[in-house]
Amino acid sequence: MKRTARRLVIDRIACTGHGLCAELFPEQLALDDWGYPIQSPGPIAGGDTRHAQRAVAACPALAMRLEAARG
Amino acid sequence: MNALFNDPLWFTTRASGTVAFGLLTVTVVLGVAGVARYAPARMGRFEVAALHRNISLLALAVLGVHIGTALADSFVPIGWTAVVVPFLSPYRTTWVGLGTLAFDLLLAVYLTSAVRLRIGQRRWKAVHLCSYGAWAVALFHAAGTGSDTRLGLQITLYSVCVAVVLAAILWRLYTVGPGHLAARVGLATASVATVAGFYGFLAAGPLAPNWSHRAQQAQSTEPMGERR
Ligand code: SF4
């Protein structure tokens, strides 16, 4: 199975600071004091994609998406 | 006990209706907890959200059983169209019709949730707010149609469901923030009025004498057989 490297993109305007994403994808997401996500940069390592997808799906504000790392 | 085996469909309809209402109640409360950002000590917030979704799906499955067995039971005439078009059932037209109405509202909520990414957050939310209405309509459907409404345990169950949902709504309205005071007071008043209306209806309707005939009679001169 071919895996394309992916990158997590957060729509800062849509984000309402629910913080669910950081519970599900702590590999790349931490929360600041107000509950908004702080993202460590870089593409998502292969095995983490599933976790990232769960975080994207759980975001109540639909503020996150996964994009191809290049382009 | 004999009646249970003679009428398995009828009993399944009643039991699954009660269970579905309980599950919907839990779903509503979990939904309010999620939107109010309730963060329990021993549970992740994402778990509250996942429970909200999964229990809602369980409720849908149990609702399928409730509707399927009600249709399959030959004693009460309801008819396939009455599943989605309200107020077509010859049996207790008004009260079964409320169940159909609640089901239609819930279907809208489920379907929009399934395509949430496509329709966008705002439209999804507008439809999702119908859940409160669906829950309230389902409550009146349960009390008005249900053959079990007079049972002490059943009334206790409804009262617990009403209490937790009302508490969740009032808590949410209280904590949501300082703005929109008039709207919040209005919604709180409407919620309390709905509950008061429910108990008024219970007293005047299902708990008053001869409900099984009155529930039917408004629509047809020929009373349906009374079932217990
Ligand atoms: S779950 Fe969504 S809304 Fe909540 S902090 Fe993460 S990106 Fe923002």
UniProtKB/TrEMBL annotation, chain A:
A Pfam cross-reference name: Fer4_15
Protein name: Ferredoxin
TrEMBL record, chain B:
Domain of life where this protein originates: Bacteria
Keyword hit for Transmembrane: yes
Transmembrane intervals: 15-36, 57-83, 95-114, 126-143, 155-174, 181-202
Segments forming a coiled coil: none
Alphabetically ordered keywords of this record: Membrane, Transmembrane, Transmembrane helix
Record-given protein name: Ferric reductase-like transmembrane domain-containing protein
Organism: Actinospica durhamensis
